[in-house]
Specification:
Largest sheet: 2 strands, antiparallel
Low-confidence stretches: 95-104
Strand content: 15-25%
Radius of gyration: 16 Å
CATH topology: Arc Repressor Mutant, subunit A
Order of helices and strands: HHHHEE
CATH superfamily: Winged helix-like DNA-binding domain superfamily/Winged helix DNA-binding domain
Distance between the termini: 35 Å
Length: 104
């Protein structure tokens, strides 16, 4: 990799991260930050942490997963509904990955 004076890989990573975060809607960014801070988490856990109903953020999980910012890394069991539910975490940041999406 060509090294330029005053430019580090961390600078590129931070610039890319800021670019991605600037393109997320407020709700997407809030969900992303919750998953980043508390992950791996379920949709239900995140809704409780944010003090909102699941249906208010379930679409944001789908959008963040579709654009490659989060991923399912396991499963938990919801006893109340007697079914398996996904555990999500933020994907390892790859500064070479290009995100192309609009505001939701």
């Amino acid at each position: 990799m060509k090294v330029r004076p005053g430019v580090t890989s961390e600078k590129y990573r931070n610039m890319s991260f800021e670019e991605v975060m600037n393109n997320l809607s407020n709700r997407q960014a809030a969900v992303y930050n919750m998953i980043l801070e508390f992950g791996p988490v379920t949709l239900e856990d995140t809704a409780k942490l944010m003090n909102v109903e699941k249906n208010c953020i379930s679409g944001r999980f789908t959008e963040l997963n579709d654009i490659g910012l989060i991923e399912v890394v396991g499963e938990d069991f919801n006893e109340a509904r007697n079914r398996k539910i996904g555990l999500y975490k933020v994907k390892k940041w790859d500064p070479q990955f290009s995100f192309q999406f609009g505001r939701a």
